[in-house]
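#onboarding

Welcome to the new folks! Below is a worked example of what a typical request in this channel looks like: someone posts a single protein sequence, and someone else replies with the predicted structure as tokens. Don't worry about understanding the tokens yet, we'll cover that in week two.

Example request:
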Amino acid sequence: MTNKYLWLIGLALCLPLFKLHSQDLKMYVSDAGNFDQPPWQILKFDVDGSNGEVFISDHLDWPQDIVFLENDTVVLISNLNSGEILRFNANTGDYINIFATGIGGPTRMKIGADSLLYVLQWDGNGKVWRYQLDGSFVDEFTAIGVGTSIGLDWDNAGNLYVSSYGEKYVQKFSLTGADLGRFVSTNLAGPTNIWFDDDGDLLVNDYNAGIVKRFDSNGSYEGNFITMVPGSEGIDFLPDGNILLGVGGTSSVRKYSPAGTLISTVVPPGTLNLLTPNAVVLRNESITSGITDPSLYSDVRIVVPSTGVTFQIISNDEIPVGSIAEVCTTSGIVVNKIILSDSTSWDASDLSNGIYMITVPLNGNKIGRQKIMIQH
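Example response:
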């Protein structure tokens, strides 16, 4: 979520769904090893768990999360022990330098709709810190701290939610960082990653309970989503909606259906000496290949109108059934995903005013694109 370099290059960086069945989509796994003691590593696999390799093994100090900055060919790794976020080459894994330091145990990182990097702190004052994508410190965003914070996500209204592992709750903050109180304060034993589904429910990896739990839009406990996942933490989502989940208690990465049913173990226990998969991140390597051939792109109508905050999804025979459209800033940072088969409309009210690009794979290995303007 930064501002753009040119339109076409920015578009090339917004294609993680292009050629969904190719070998371009890779899975990166942060291995926290023995927690505050090594060995630590970042592993890389194909999405089916094959072709595994050690991607990064040096300069790490209890790694926590992985964020790719494709514009700069950089991957950021947060390190709890050292209080640093480090830059590495996104293609080779070679160490570059320090992105940010002096953080009270940085854990989870996410790029927000304002094009800033949001960083959680395990220690320190527990507030959410924001950074420009060049590493410049912006501010302490939240009005209060959340101790041992290790999970964050936004709802459709743009409110921020932060989980506290040690204190067993999820805190809610407004768009401006104002404290809105405890969102979840019961039925948790040690929450890590959190995320909102398309229905507005909050899913919580309850690490200590070994369960992924569901809470409704009011924070009320609805029940278990996935069970028998001790030490669940790292998570990401495949284009078909399936879930990749790091299970620390079995030193593995498993694949689940959107309904929470186990499909397979994609990274078996102990592969490449994997101990504690605390982050699982997907990346499409085609975005590093400089795809700028205009013949690949087709201007299509994906939504109408082209300006506003509420859009209707258009039926288009060129778009394969089950496709997921991605909404990107003009620099190619993905800020939203639209499962086209799930709804007839898309609410973009959580995004800031500005120009965005929607891309979707088309039949014939082409990429559909539509430029829209969010205007509140």
